[in-house]
Amino acid sequence: MSLHGTLNFSDHNFPRPKVRLGCVYLPQFGPERLAATARVADEAALDELWLWEDCFLSGGISAAAIALSHSARLTVGIGVLPVPMRNVALTAMEIATLDRAFPGRVRIGVGHGVQDWMGQIGGKVSSPMTLLREYVTCLTALLDGEVVSYHGQYMSLSDVRLAWPPEGDVDLLVAAKGPLTLQLSGELATGTVLADGTAPDAVRAAIGHIDRGRANQSAIKSHSIVTYVLCATDPDARTGVDDEILDSGFDDLAQITAPDDAPAIADAAQRWIDAGTDTLVLQPAANVDIEDFVRFVGAQVQPLLHQVQ
């Protein structure tokens, strides 16, 4: 049955995903350090390690395979794969391969991609929204093991079916910032990846748009909110975070700076959780020792955050 009107999910007994904490392995760190970082994250019991597929740095799927194969329990998220770069059937094949090899440990985000970069590779389209809708629709059906025939403005598939589809549900998220993309994510995805630099009040506003999309779902489903938050855990990193805020024009409220103070970081992180974030991903400055950062967050910050849930 379709849901219509101004449904507000906060007014319903709707299951909220459990709170998870993660760290970003920035693509500036280099792929040769990823295996060691994944091992450290696993040893520190960090919930999640997130990877970016930024042009023209490391590949998201191959990086995820490295992180997964060098850890035993760590969940690995890709946030996100730019859809204009990737044939949807190939993306489905690669996601299914990862999920079957490492069941329940993969979270995949897809998005419009940075339009300047998409132009550089000849992938820029006239309607990114149409492409994203068609792509997520086809990708979801392929991962569900369906035979897909679809002929839209950008997607064209004829009797395509994965030989090795995932054996369980795959967490497929959409990166979103503007109201229309947020609404599309709420309608089609299992979660939304919010941009770095999103302050708590902006998270609340984004969820309002997402919920309008969720009202168009055929059934009420859980929907995860993933938020990247700039985080400095030492004085040198504070300088790096400040520089990124200045260069990117981020809201100054969208950061956590508490050198070597795990309780202060956990306390500050609660602001995003209270706003509706269930997966908080701490983003370090590019000048940090990533292994030390991951170890500190997993071993010292995460237990404090889980205590109050």
Automatic annotation (TrEMBL):
CDD domains: Tetrahydromethanopterin_reductase (cd01097). One of its GO terms (molecular function) is oxidoreductase activity, acting on paired donors, with incorporation or reduction of molecular oxygen. Residues 28-236 form the Luciferase-like domain. Pfam families: Bac_luciferase (PF00296). The keyword Oxidoreductase applies. InterPro entries: F420-G6PD/mer, Luciferase-like_dom, Luciferase-like_sf. The keyword Oxidoreductase applies. It comes from the Bacteria. Keywords: Oxidoreductase. This is LLM class flavin-dependent oxidoreductase. It comes from Mycobacterium spongiae.
